[in-house]
Amino acid sequence: MRADDLDAAWNLSLDLHWPHRPRDWSTALSLGEGIVATVDGQLVGTTMRWLWGETHATIGLVIVSGLMRGRRIGSALMNRILEGLEDRIVSLHATEEGRGLYERMGFVRTGEIRQHQGVASNAPLIALDEGWRLRPLDNSDEPALFELDRQARGWERPQLLRTWLDTSERVMVLDHDGTLDGFAFLRRFGRGVVVGPVVASNDIGARALIGHLIGAAGGRFVRIDLDYDSGLTTWMEELQLQRAGTVTAMTRAPLPPRDAGGARLFALASQALG
């Protein structure tokens, strides 16, 4: 995939009613690499991958033109993008249409992501115990933020976080007596803004972070991709952010166990990037 493929790739995503802007495609390519399929010079398929540290990778933006389905183009793209990743833990988020292909390639289900979206209204304030507070990110917080993300996501991705730090509208952190315990980003994406990634050690902290950013986005179109096991999906609907889709989290090779008492990923950065 080259920069001059991005307009055609964006048009493929429009055909699927995906909300990505050309800039969202450009950002994704700047962080990773991709493969395209062409027929008679026309781009008919895409897939991308992102390498995180020495041990992990994610795959996303897997698209095949509707006119070309049934020709095993998706299988060919996946086989190519997986080359060289044999020693890495590879994760992706599968639509219902793509799940069978990924299962045949050795991916197994590890969870479920619920996409919620709608026009933001003021969210109720979440009461925090003494010693806990929300505040804007300070430059000195960055090392702790990167470490919390590593604990929650399971791999290091500083290049992605630096991109979001440079481009986000707002980044809030959860402070516990001077120690960082969580964070959340509000970023431009698609039709409006997205809340994510969101990391916290418990659901009260996650609700406080998410509610603050939804309130800050009042009147705008907001999207959030929540881990279903977070227990926050019903709360999202109470905030008038209705479920708009579901994808399956899948991994090839087992994920390492997460520290039950540590930081947890409540909302994705994006379905493609994880």
Describe the protein.
The chain has 274 residues and is α+β, with helices and mostly antiparallel strands. It is 29% helix and 36% strand. The chain has helices at 6-15, 22-31, 73-81, 96-104, 142-153, 158-167, 203-216, 233-238, and strands at residues 33-39, 42-52, 56-64, 89-94, 108-119, 132-136, 170-176, 179-189, 192-200, 221-227, 242-252, 264-267. Strands 1, 2, 3, 4, 5, 6, 7, 8, 9, 10, 11 and 12 form a twelve-stranded mixed sheet that branches. It is globular, with a radius of gyration of 19 Å.
Low-confidence stretches: none
Which range does the strand content fall in?
35-45%
Q: What integer is the average pLDDT?
A: 94
Question: What's the gyration radius in Å?
Answer: 19 Å
The quaternary structure here is: single chain
Helix residue percentage:
25-40%
State the order of secondary-structure elements, H for helix, E for strand: HHEEEHEHEEHHEEEHEHEE
What is the molecular shape? globular
Structural class: alpha+beta
Counting H and I runs of at least 4 residues, what is the number of helices? 8
Give the termini separation: 20 Å
Number of strands: 12
In this structure, how is the largest beta sheet organized?
A: 12 strands, mixed
Element layout with pairings:
Blueprint: H1 6-15, H2 22-31, E1 33-39, E2 42-52, E3 56-64, H3 73-81, E4 89-94, H4 96-104, E5 108-119, E6 132-136, H5 142-153, H6 158-167, E7 170-176, E8 179-189, E9 192-200, H7 203-216, E10 221-227, H8 233-238, E11 242-252, E12 264-267
Parallel strand pairs: 3-4, 9-10
Antiparallel strand pairs: 1-2, 2-3, 4-11, 5-10, 5-11, 6-7, 7-8, 8-9, 9-12
